[in-house]
Amino acid sequence: MAKNKDARPPTFAVSVVGLSGTEKEKGNCGVGKSCLCNRYVRPNADNYYSEHTSVLSTIDFGGRVVNNDHFLYWGDVCHRGDDGLDCRIQIIEQTEFIDDQTFLPHRSTNLQPYTKRAASTKLQSAEKLMYICTDQLGLEQDFDQKQMPDGKLNIDGFILCIDVSKGCNRKFDDQMKFVNSLYSQIAKTKKPIVVAATKCDECVDQHLRDLQVFVASKKNLLLIETSSKTNVNVELCFNSLLQQLDKTRGKPKTVPYLEAYKIQRQLVASVTDRFEKLMVQTVRDYHTTWKAVTNNLRGQPDYEEFITLEGSRKARNTFTKHIAQLKQEHIRKRREEYLTTLPKTLNNMLNNLDEVEHLTWHEAQSVIRNRHDFQFWFIILDQTPWDESDHIDNSDRRIPFDLLETPEAERIYHNHVQHLLSEKRRGEMKERFKKTLERVHFISPGQSWEEVMCFVMEDEAYKYITEMDRRDVYARHQQEIVERAKEEFQEMLFEHAELFYDLDLNATPSCDKMTEIHSVLNEEPRYRALQKLAPDRESLLLKHIGFVYHPTKETCLSGQNCVDLKVEQVLANRLVQLDHGRSNLYYNNPNVDKLNLCLLGKEGLAQELANEIRAQSTDDEYTLDGKIYELELLPVDVNSTLLFSHTWVSTFKPHGCFCVFSSIESLNSIGDCIGRIRAEIAGSRRDRFAQPLPFILILANQRDNVCKNIPILRHQGQQLANKLQCTFVDLVVPSGAFPRKFTEFQIKQGLRAVLDNMKHNFDFLAPLPSIKDMSEMDLRIVMCAMCWDPFSVDLILSPFLDSHCCSAGPAGHSNSLILDKILGETRRRIQVTVLSYHSAIGVRKDELVHGYILVYSAKRKASMATLRAFLAEVQDVIPVQMVAITDSQADFFENDAIKELMTEGEHIATEIAAKFTALYSLSQYHRQTEVFTPFFNEVYQKKQGIESSFLFDNSSRECTTGASEDIFPTSPHSHSPAYNTYYPDSDDDNEAPPPYSPIGDDVQLLPTPSERAKYRIDLEGNEYPVHSTPVGEHERNHKVPPPVRPKPVLTKPNVRKLDPNLLKTIEAGMRSNRRMPRPPLVHAEDVETSENYADPVDTLRSRGYINDDIYAVPEDSHSRLIKIRNTFGGLHHGGLEEENGYERKANTTGRRPSKYKHRSKILFSKTKAYQRRFQSDSDGEESGPATQKKKKGRAHRGSEEDPLLSPADPWKQGIDNPAITSDPEQDDKKMKKKKTAKTPKEPKKPKSSKPAKPLYPPTRRTWDSNYFGVPLENLVTPDHPIPLFIEKCVDYIEKTGLTTEGLYRVSGNKTDQDNIQKLFDQDHSIDFVTLDVAINAAAGALKAFFADLPDPLIPYSLHPELVEAAKIVDYMERLLVLREIVKKFPPVNYNVFKYIITHLNRVSQHSKTTLMTADNLSICFWPTLMRPDFENMDTLSTTKLNQSVVECFILQSDYFFHGGEVAESSSSEGTPPHHCHNMVEALLPLQLPPPLQPQQIQHSIPAEPLI
After folding, report:
1. Left, alpha or beta for 18 (phi > 0: left; psi -120 to 50: alpha)?
2. Whose CA is closest to 1433, among 426, 475, 453, 478?
3. Is pTM beyond 0.85 here?
4. What does residue 1066 show for φ and ψ, rounded to 5 degrees?
5. Residues 603, 661: contact at Cβ < 8 Å?
6. Alpha carbon 936 to its chain's center
7. CB 35 within 8 A of CB 71
8. Helix, strand or coil for residue 139?
9. For 1068-1123, how does the pLDDT look when each residue is reduced to its tens digit (9 = 90+)?
10. Pairing mode, if any, of strands 727-729 and 695-699?
């Protein structure tokens, strides 16, 4: 050891020796001296070299590294021990270099043999460089150059290397002989020696044992098992020697190779794992390079440690593997993406099962490739397979077509075919199940699936489809029957039109009126069909009443099917608005000598036609039929933007349009173009120009292929012309002539068609000299139809629109049209306004109407009911034409319902002397205007009397309200948009409108020609149907009733709507009225003959009281007294002379009009029927002052004209907003209380607002109770943990009811249940046996007790846990979980739950007599015990699970509550006795479900008989 005089760390020189020499002596490889030195001096994996050759050239041997010595200087290593002492160790390797030429040892300065030379302790070599690796020899300048210090070294210790591996052509014994000799020489130096067993990673156990024996035989010799390759115990070897050199250092622990190797491998594995994780976190893109990764990871501890232990090469290999994995993962994801998309692709391209069912996958690929959308789903790559091409980096998500060659794709295809087959089967089964449900007649609207499923469980389709599909089909079925029931309910409301007729506008129905409505409707099955949907039913009823309040087209229940809207659409599309102010008469003159023609074609055809016309013209003048026309041509291509605007029509003003085509494609373009042009013109009908534009289709010749396509084009052109109702000009080629595209014949035919159309339009539009100004209408007719009747409005409008004398109505009257008809000997102008019944209400009294055409459908009772209700309030001086609509005349004989309605209509017409006819949708004849000509003649003949009556009525109104200049009343629909359309200046009225609400389907009925032989011809040459009432019969029915005193009504001012002629008549009438010397009087008995009109004032007051108020109307619609002032002056005295004078005056001025309901028994009886029925009910049920007052004041009610007026007392809880629904249950209770009241009611406190009805109301009782509906904690004590009422019910049921069939399922009488609870409230000690309580009533009272609890017996907080427990598949595990959940119940709930479940278990044990198994009991009890929210979709999805939980508790009650064993469920538990089968069969003829639980009978009776 070199002594250091300063404080520098000590330095030790260690010589590594071992077997060396020629190949003959040491074999093919060395013993590992160089590797040992290399691993210790430079332990980093990148600096470790496993190959160190000893065969050198003379030059390398003489280089500065070897320096002609047989030893190598490896450099020094700084060592810091565990005790903190530092030292420096210099490493020398003693070897023997072989000449690569002679293969003998090189000659050096020391010629001693290796054994003596290796034992030398003093080494000297000037300027000797540190050895690094074999590649350093000859290239010393490229490596680190470090000299051996001072050129000499003193060896302080030796490491003797012995190879324990198999060796390369070397015997271990020979090595040991050499080692013995070497050891003897080294031992003489007295230096410490450590034996290193090298290459232990390839160790031969025998060699290692022999070495251990050798070491053990030597004194103080230490053996270290090493492996330079795996870097095991290398440092330990040198540290052991260092401890012997410096005794102050601690002795290191000697670790066997295997143990040390394990520790080393764990370290390497940990470092490798951290490095791989670092690689995964850092490298996410397989395009990343190693250089970028090293730059990024340099300095990372995990990276540096791995480089140290494993080296850069392994790090790069790890990186390469990771990149390959990333790429494969990317390819895998893309493949999964493609395979995931493939089913969707196949579903889009091969969704026809019939097409692909028998195709192989290869054939299917061919079909796919030939699809037009192939490129949208697939891509064909130039380079295959796709996962080795650049397509993996492409953003194109189309599927590579070569992917279809894989087995996965073929499997997906077969799965797709199977899916189509299963979906087809599933669809068939769903439809089959749907039909099964349709055959189950007792399914009612609103019925839950749980109530129905038991009746269809045995159906094959039920078993095939899933529960979700069953519920889906049932929901669809329920939706259908609910919608159907609602439609039928709405139709029923319309059929009871008279019931709603007395509901005033902007009013609220009284309580009595609502009671009456419910009482009448309750007799209807369609009303009761919605019993389970009572809120919806009430909403529909209130919505209907709300429409009665506001009968406009906006509030019409038919929506877009409202007659008013449809009439507006039809008239806007088919009528031409007249422009009386236009000055360009030349344009409409049939003698025009200039024609503007638009030429329409494709691909230059229009220009070619223009050129041909110009070629046949002379200076743009064309000669036709001896007359010269100046032609102005406008060729337009079908794709021109000019056609998208109607401005070109008003600018160019074409008289016609030639549309030329030469192919199917151009013909289709022409058809689309004509449609667009007509649509644009129709949208501009209100412009000044409104003449219809004629279109002429012209077929152009094809010179190259005449015979092949011309017949097809001719046929297609004719079909399009028929469809568009335009002229078709065929191609006619003279024989022998040169074929031209257009012939002179075609052009002339087209021009003639244009001129004929112009002449027709002029006849249609031109004003006749005898026609008055538009504001002067001779007759005003109103046609009424009901919304949603099963016929098109075109049918009732066609008699007018198909006539050439029809034109548009005045501006602002979009539902009116004008007819120019010859009535008598003069042409008259008739304004026909077509309205719905609900819009015609305001017209009935407020406007001058000369006649009504009332239309109804003979297929619909509601239509007839609406007509009756409307007609009943029409004044009987106004002529009426009734029109029945049906398909054909045969319906009268083949359909009894149609026959009944047509007969009823004809009877009404006979009673009121109206005309009656029928229109048939399948007959063209009855669409002619002449159908109504007799009616128009009758109206015109009675015009003067109608206007006089209207004058008299309005004069009375003016007199009633005092001086006023206006005569006409204003309409109650002034704020109604629908009515303002027709009568903008209308105001409010007080007459109650009938509920003319629309419902039904607007069925388009296609007309077909009918035989005229079925109809008779009258004297004027007009044809009429057989069902029309003869004129003579009408004349016989025109009987004038005896004069009665007119009932005065309210005056409503406005005179501007009268025409000038009527104004003159009114003025003359007023002057004659002012000249009357005395007012007319009647006998006293005239007042008593009817309740129709007001009583004279002198019958109400003393005779001495003189006043000019003649008549007093007891009540108007607002329940106030109205007086009619005596405007004729003077006093009135009774006497025969005055009476006779009145009669004479009445004969000259016309009688006071009544209403049609007083002339028709049918109308009157229908109106009075509801009142009589309700009054009879009320008289039998009601009593008290209110009833007596109602009976006593009956004489002061409105007349029989309004038999259902609301009583004076308003409904204090009326419905201010019809859209707000009420609580049906509470309303029903109020009505029942009202009917059953025996004493006068105490005044009720007004209710400000009613809170929303909770899902589970706190109580179902109608009385206050301190016991029922209170928390369980208030009903139990520690001594009595079970409420007394429960104990009494259970005790009574178990004593007397365990043989009752359907126990807990069959509902008891609700009144009995309430009585039980009421008696218990009064006396807790009641005895059920003494009271002889019905078992089902006691069971129902027990269930009601739980239903009334503020919180359910099973707490809501445990419901989710119970549901999850029910999903457990293993039965025993499920029971264990349920038992733990039950323990979480509150103590009070637990005791009651235990008691009731134990009771239900005892009931289930008697299922052979009660037919109530645990399953059936759970169905009945689980909603009561858990009280779920059925409006929540999650609750509906767990219904079956909740029921199964309760069933499990019942079945295993001993296990859950009494420490018993798990009970085995018997398969025969639910088997009913034999007599049950017979009982069910006995019920089958009633078409009702059996009263037994379906689980009891499903296997003993098929499902089919239940349907």
Report:
1. left
2. 475
3. no
4. -65, -45
5. no
6. 53
7. no
8. coil
9. 444 444 433 443 333 333 333 333 333 333 333 333 333 433 333 333 333 333 33
10. parallel
Alpha-carbon dihedral 249, 250, 254, 259, rounded to 10 degrees: -110
Number of helical (H) and strand (E) elements in the chain, helices listed first: 56, 30
Q: How is residue 1335 written in tokens?
A: 């078992």
User: Distance between CA 584 and CA 688 in Å, rounded?
Assistant: 10
Q: How far apart are CA 177 and CA 764, in angstroms?
A: 140
DSSP string, 433-478: HHHHHHH-TT--TT--HHHHHTTSTT-HHHHHS-HHHHHHHHHHHH
Is 1359 within 8 Å of 1378 (Cβ atoms)? no
Q: At 1366, which helix (H) or strand (E)?
A: helix 1359-1366
DSSP-derived 3-state class of residue 609: helix
Q: At what angle do helices 1414-1426 and 1387-1404 cross, to 10 degrees?
A: 160
Pair of tokens at residue 88 = 């420096």
Alpha-carbon distance of 130 to 592, in angstroms, equals 125
Q: Which amino acid, one-letter code, is at 1036? A: R
Q: Are 697 and 729 in contact (CB under 8 A)?
A: yes
Name the H helices within 1124-1274. 1136-1149, 1161-1181, 1185-1192, 1224-1236
636 forms bridges with which residues in the sheet? 600
Are 1210 and 507 in contact, with CB atoms under 8 Å apart?
no
Nearest to 1154 by CA among 873, 920, 963: 873
Residue 699 β-bridge partners: 661
Structure tokens at 626: 């001896």
1136 burial type by CB count under 10 A (0-12 exposed, 13-18 middle, 19+ buried): exposed
Distance CA 1406, CA 1410 (A): 6
Of 170-174, 318-322, 747-751, 1183-1187, least confident by mean pLDDT is 1183-1187
> What are 734-739's contacts with CB under 8 Å, separation 24+?
739/701, 739/703, 739/706
pLDDT band at 85 (very low <50, low <70, confident <90, very high): low
Cα separation, 253 vs 973, in Å, equals: 114
Q: Give the three-class secondary structure for 853.
A: strand
Peptide bond just before 385 cis, omega within 30 deg? yes
Main-chain phi, psi angles of 536, to 5 degrees: -65, -40
Q: What's the mean pLDDT in 578-586? A: 38
Where is 519: in which H helix or E strand?
A: helix 511-521
Query: Could you tell me which residues are beta bridge partners of residue 918?
Result: 884
Structure tokens at 479: 């939706």
Residue 321 has, within 13 A of its CA and on its CB side, a CA count of 9
Q: Coil, strand or helix: which one is 1388?
A: helix
Sign of CA dihedral 578, 582, 584, 586: positive
Residues in contact with 818: Cβ distance below 8 Å, sequence separation at least 6, in sequence order:
774, 777, 806, 807, 808, 809, 810, 829, 830, 831, 832
How many Cα atoms within 13 Å fall on the side-chain side of residue 28? 4
Note the Cα 189 to chain centre separation in Å. Answer: 101
Residue 37: Cβ within 10 Å count: 27
| Cβ atoms of 1396 and 1286 closer than 8 Å | yes
3 state SS of 158: strand
Pairing mode, strands 1109-1113 and 1095-1096: antiparallel
Residue with more model confidence, 926 or 430: 430
Structural tokens at position 947: 């206007």
Q: Which of 69, 76, 77 shows the shortest CA–CA distance to 94?
A: 69
624 within 8 A of 588, measured Cβ to Cβ: no
How many CA within 13 A on the CB side of residue 709?
16
DSSP string, 1050-1112: ------TTS-HHHHHHHHHHHHHHHT-SS-----HHHHHT-SSSPEEGGGTS-TT---SEEEE
* Amino acid at site 482: V
When computed from its CA atoms, the radius of gyration of the chain, rounded to whole angstroms, is: 56
Tell me the C-alpha distance between 434 and 469, whole Å. Answer: 11
* Short-list 790, 746, 698, CA closest to 1004: 790
User: Residue 915, Cβ neighbours under 10 Å: how many?
Assistant: 24
